[in-house]
Structures are given as structure tokens and as C-alpha cells.
Amino acid sequence: MSLKSLQILGFTLSIFAAAPATAGQCGFEHCWGAIGFNGDGKIGVAYSHWSEEGAYRTAQEHCGWDCAEMRTFKNSCAAIAQGENGSWSWARARTRSGAERTAHKLCDGRSHSCKTVVWACSR
Fold first, then answer.
1. Any idea where the domains of the chain sit in the sequence?
2. pLDDT at position 41, please?
3. How far is CA 82 from CA 6, 62, 105, 114, 120, in A?
């Protein structure tokens, strides 16, 4: 092996060694998220947080500290659906589509024309 080849190999290995072994900012299996909304149309969203408190605070900040309905979740996705009469439901699942589907199903039991207000996945 030439000196140049060894230098390239060493540089390549140093890049991989420096890369963090985490999933997003929160690490493997420790990702918190939060979603929330209020009656005036404000929403709050947070994802990839190390702690439940951090996710909650970030989502509330995005909502101007005015989200009356706030939900936290870990290592999953969550969605809030709201119907035409103002009633709402929330759900969490492994996927965005699963969370939205369940939130809509729960909301449809209380109202009509339920729509997703906000969704997020923690990782």
C-alpha cells in the first residue's frame, strides 16, 4: 500500500470514528416529543428531545405558552384530530399514519369531519 493510500484510509476511518452513534439528537430509544394546540389555531410541536420536560417546554414555546391541550410521547408518533364541533382526540402509534388513523377514529366517535390538527414523531 502506498503512503497516499494509507493517508486516505486513515482520513476515512477518522471520519467514521468521529461520527456520533446516536439516532437524532436524543440517542437510541430515548426520544421524547410533544404536540399541542389551542382553540385559536395555535399549535406547538417538539421532537427528538432527551427529556419529556424538554419536549413539553419546546412545544409550549412554539405555541406562545398558550396551548391548553399538550401531550407528550416517547419513541413514537402522535397526532391530534379535531372535529367540526370542536371536540378532539389524540393518539400515539409507531408511525405517523397509525397515530393519525387512530386519532381520527376516536374523534369520529364524537364529531364529524375530523381533521388532523398537528402531528409529530419523536425520532
1. 26-121
2. 83
3. 60, 19, 11, 5, 16
